[in-house]
Amino acid sequence: MAGDFERGNAEAVESLLRSSAATVQRNLMTIPRLADGSPRYARGWHMVGWSDEFAVGKAAARDYFGQRLVIYRGEDGRVRCMDAFCPHLGADLSAGTVKGNLLQCAFHNWTYDGSGQCVKIPYFDKIPPRAKTRAYPVKEINETVLIWHDHEGGEPEYDIPALQEFHPKTDPDSAGWTKGWHRFKITIKTHPREVIENIVDRGHLLPIHGFDVDHWLPVWNGHLCGELMWGKHTRLAADVQDDKLYVRALSHGPSYQYTWQIQDSAQFDSLILTSWCPVDENTLEYWFGVIVKANDAQFTPDMLEAAAEQYCKASYDAFMEDVYIWERKLYRSEPVLCGGDGPIANLRRWYTQFYTDRAQVNVSRYFNNNEHWTVEELRDRQGVVLAAQATAATALTV
Ligand code: FES
Ligand SMILES: [Fe+2]
What we know:
Rieske Iron-sulfur Protein; 29% strand; binds FE2/S2 (inorganic) cluster
């Protein structure tokens, strides 16, 4: 029947847009795994949502790291995150009720505090010693909520500074920046290793993003990696003759990234937040937010907000070009690389630290002197930035 044919055909088209089951299978053979064969997820701070997704007094279910999590904001305003399945008989705690700063399971009303400890059983006085669910350290910055994921269960080993440039909508003064994020979120069928690799993939900047880079410099500093670059952007800065775009991108750990962008023409400054979190071994959620600042008094705040929204939409379209590649590519463990490619092999070595037991990680191996350069220095003190690259400490010592 025609209907069946069309449906079958749509499935075939869909499988060509994303990887076939066989390609996914091949990719899954090379992802980081634990000794028992289950996927190993990165250690580090991971975004789990925008702050406004977690209202006071409500429990929310989220699926990350191959698990169900419950996230709730207590009446004190603090967000808590725990493994969702009740240690008692396994009910999903996200169906429970927030009571003050505690969470009560819907099934038999056992009640937990934010550390995961059961503090009350309504029909028995003695709380069993094992009545405890795993809690995750939570951090809230830039109107985003992050949790610390660590397979070994350790405390956070690095912090992420909040952005000075970011101001919530309620701030009376935002120093010229738009307020709140212009933002989107998408689900991508791939592994986070593909997303992080983008940060040093110099070779894709022109074909995918229209960015003709003159200079490209890596940043390595322990849990941080990034890129400094400038050149002609054929889309973002195309309206001004010989305008150049200067970019400083910094990834704080495996999945939370800031990108500052300015131009020669100094029309707009922009600052982008990108973050991602694995849902399962081949699915992740990805968040994008942008704020902009106009260096031109003619822009009213409303015009500027509209420009930021426009920027967000354009970024979505540009980003979907990356996504289109990621969702159907093969992960090459031993890629054929050439000199102009950017330090992809170093990036992969740097990235392994988040999948390695702490005792075996030596972060001092990942270091150069480039982290401190501001995006303005890339534009205004280029000679100094480039001259500094000649010093010995700029080499990645892996
Ligand atoms: S399953 Fe949660 S209280 Fe029984
Ligand atoms: Fe990209």
